[in-house]
C-alpha cells in the first residue's frame, strides 16, 4: 500500500496542477466543451486513445484473458474494427459541422426540441452505463490496494472526477488524457517485455506455456462465444458502438478542421491497436505465470480481488511492489481520465442540450451554462456510484460490451442517417433514436447480465447478453419507416 501511495500522490498532484492550468484558459462555453478548438491532431490522437483505453481495455481485458482466453481477443478485434469506420464516416463530417454534442448534429437539420431531448437522453444513457464500467474497475482497484470498502472507493473516485471536470472542462480532460495515454502505453510495454523475458522473448513459447497450464481450449472461443448469434451481436455492438460514444465523438470538435479530425482518428487507431497487441502478451502471461503462486489466490482458488486484478498480480510477480504500485497508479489515472471525459459528455448533454438547447434564450448565458454543467457533474457522479454497486462482481470488459451495444443502437443509426440520408425526417429521426435506445436497454435488462446476474432470476427472458444484432437493425428500420410515413418538409431537413 505504501509503495502504491508513492506513485499515486505525485500523479494525482500532477493532474490537479494540469486542471488548474486549464481552468485559467477556460473563459467561455466553447473553451469548456471543446477546448476552444485549439488541440492539434497529434494531441487529439493521444487524447482519443486515452479516452478509449479505459479500465476495461487494461484491467478488464487482462482479466478476461485470464478467465476465458480467446474471448478477450474477440472483444479487442471487435472494438478495433470500429476505428476505420469512425475515421471515414464521422470524424471529418462532425468537425465540419462545428457542434459541441451529438444533439447539435441533429439540430443542424431539424428544429425539434423533442429530437434534441431524445438525443440528449440517449447520450446520457450511454454515458451512465459506460461510467458504471469505470466505477467498478476503480472500486475493485482501491478495494484491493488500500482495503477500502467498495462504496467508499467509488465515492472517492466520483469526488476526484467532479473536481477534474468542474475545474478545467475539456482542456483539462484533454491534457490529463494525453498524460495518461503515454503512461499507459509505456507501462503496458514494460509489462509485456517482462512477460516475454520469462519465455526467452518468444511469443510461441508463451502460448505453449499457457496451453500447458489451461489446455488448448484457452486458444479457442469459450462457452460465452459458442453461440453464433451471441458472437455476431457482440461484434456488431463493439464495432458500431465506438461510432456512438458521446465522449469520443466530442473529441473531433476540439481540433481546427476536418483534416485534423481524420488524422487524429487514424493515429489513435494505431495507438489503440498497438496496446491491444500488448494486452495479448499480458493476458496470456497471466495465464501462464500466476497459477503457480498461491499467494495470489484465496482459499476458494479464486484470484484475490477478482479477475479484473490479474494485471496487478502479474506486475507484483514480475517486478515486485514498485512495479505493482506504478501500474496501480497508472490504472487509477486511466480510470479518472476516462470518467472525466465521460462526465464532461454527460454534463454537456444536460447543460448544453437539455437546459440551454431546449430554451434558446438561455444559450447566451455562458456563465449559467457552465454552472449547470457543474451541478450535472455532481448528479452524474452520485448516480454512477450507486448504480455501480449493482454490477461490482461482473467483468468490466463484459460490461463494456453492453455499453457499446447501447451506443451502437441508440446513437449511431440516427447520427449516420442525419449526416448521409437527405430524406430523413423529424419523425424518422425520433423513431430511430428512441427505438435504438429503448430496445437495447430493455433487452439488456431482460438478458443474463441484469435479469439473472443482478436481479437474481433463474433464467433470462431474452437469452443473449448482447442486444446489438436486434436493436441496431430495428433502429434503422424505424428511421426509414418513420421518414416514409411522415416525410419532412424542405425547410425541415437539408442534405
Shape: globular
Mean pLDDT: 80
CATH topology annotation: Sodium/glucose cotransporter
The end-to-end distance, rounded to whole angstroms, is: 58 Å
Helix and strand sequence: HHHHHHHHHHHHHHHHHHHH
CATH architecture, by name, is Up-down Bundle
- Report the total helices: 20
Helix percent reads: over 70%
Q: What is the CATH superfamily?
A: Sodium/glucose cotransporter
> Briefly, what CATH class?
Mainly Alpha
Commentary on this structure:
The protein has 495 residues and is an all-alpha fold. It has one domain (2-392): Sodium/glucose cotransporter. The protein is 75% helix and 0% strand. The chain contains 20 helices and no strands. The chain has helices at 2-25, 29-34, 41-52, 55-68, 70-80, 82-97, 102-107, 113-146, 150-197, 203-214, 228-241, 246-249, 258-289, 310-356, 366-388, 396-410, 412-420, 426-446, 448-452, 468-485. It is globular and about 65 Å long. 59% of the residues are buried. The model has no long low-confidence stretch (mean pLDDT 80).
Amino acid at each position: 500500500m505504501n509503495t502504491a501511495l508513492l506513485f499515486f500522490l505525485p500523479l494525482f498532484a500532477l493532474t490537479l496542477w494540469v486542471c488548474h492550468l486549464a481552468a485559467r484558459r477556460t473563459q467561455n462555453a466553447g473553451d469548456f466543451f471543446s477546448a476552444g478548438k485549439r488541440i492539434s491532431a497529434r494531441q487529439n490522437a493521444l487524447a482519443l486513445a486515452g479516452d478509449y483505453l479505459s479500465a476495461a481495455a487494461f484491467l478488464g481485458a487482462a482479466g478476461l484473458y485470464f478467465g476465458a482466453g480467446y474471448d478477450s481477443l474477440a472483444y479487442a478485434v471487435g472494438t478495433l474494427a470500429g476505428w476505420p469506420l469512425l475515421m471515414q464516416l464521422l470524424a471529418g463530417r462532425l468537425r465540419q459541422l462545428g457542434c459541441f454534442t451529438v444533439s447539435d448534429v441533429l439540430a443542424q437539420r431539424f428544429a425539434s426540441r423533442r429530437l434534441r431531448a431524445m438525443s440528449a437522453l440517449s447520450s446520457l444513457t450511454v454515458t451512465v452505463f459506460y461510467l458504471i464500467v469505470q466505477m467498478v474497475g476503480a472500486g475493485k482497484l482501491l478495494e484491493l490496494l488500500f482495503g477500502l470498502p467498495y462504496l467508499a472507493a467509488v465515492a472517492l473516485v466520483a469526488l476526484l472526477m467532479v473536481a477534474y471536470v468542474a475545474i478545467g472542462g475539456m482542456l483539462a480532460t484533454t491534457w490529463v488524457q494525453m498524460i495518461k495515454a503515454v503512461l499507459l502505453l509505456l507501462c503496458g510495454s514494460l509489462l509485456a517485455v517482462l512477460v516475454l523475458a520469462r519465455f526467452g522473448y518468444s511469443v510461441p513459447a508463451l502460448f505453449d506455456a499457457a496451453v500447458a497450464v489451461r489446455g488448448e481450449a484457452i486458444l479457442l472461443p469459450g462457452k460465452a462465444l459458442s453461440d453464433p448469434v451471441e458472437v455476431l451481436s457482440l461484434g456488431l455492438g463493439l464495432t458500431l458502438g465506438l461510432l456512438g460514444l458521446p465522449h469520443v465523438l466530442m473529441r473531433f470538435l476540439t481540433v481546427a478542421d476536418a483534416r485534423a479530425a481524420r488524422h487524429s482518428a487514424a493515429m489513435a487507431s494505431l495507438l489503440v491497436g498497438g496496446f491491444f497487441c500488448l494486452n495479448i502478451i499480458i493476458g496470456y502471461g497471466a495465464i501462464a505465470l500466476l497459477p503457480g503462486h498461491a499467494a495470489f489466490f484465496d482459499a476458494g482458488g479464486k484470484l484475490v480481488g477478482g479477475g479484473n486484478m490479474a494485471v496487478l498480480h502479474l506486475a507484483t510477480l514480475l517486478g515486485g511492489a514498485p512495479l505493482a504500485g506504478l501500474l496501480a497508479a497508472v490504472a487509477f489515472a486511466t480510470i479518472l481520465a476516462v470518467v472525466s471525459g465521460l462526465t464532461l459528455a454527460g454534463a454537456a448533454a444536460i447543460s448544453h442540450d437539455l437546459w440551454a438547447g431546449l430554451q434558446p434564450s438561455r444559450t447566451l448565458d455562458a456563465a449559467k451554462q457552465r454552472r449547470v454543467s457543474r451541478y450535472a457533474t455532481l448528479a452524474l457522479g452520485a448516480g454512477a456510484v450507486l448504480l455501480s454497486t449493482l454490477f461490482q462482481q461482473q467483468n468490466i470488459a463484459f460490461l463494456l460490451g453492453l455499453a457499446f451495444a447501447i451506443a451502437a443502437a441508440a446513437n449511431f443509426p440516427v447520427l449516420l442517417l442525419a449526416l448521409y440520408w437527405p430524406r430523413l425526417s423529424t419523425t424518422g429521426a425520433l423513431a430511430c433514436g428512441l427505438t435504438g435506445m429503448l430496445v437495447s436497454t430493455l433487452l439488456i435488462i431482460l438478458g443474463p447480465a441484469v435479469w439473472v446476474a443482478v436481479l437474481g432470476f433463474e433464467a433470462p427472458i431474452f437469452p443473449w447478453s448482447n442486444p446489438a444484432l436486434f436493436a441496431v437493425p430495428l433502429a434503422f428500420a424505424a428511421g426509414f419507416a418513420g421518414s416514409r410515413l411522415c416525410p419532412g418538409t424542405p425547410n425541415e431537413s437539408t442534405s
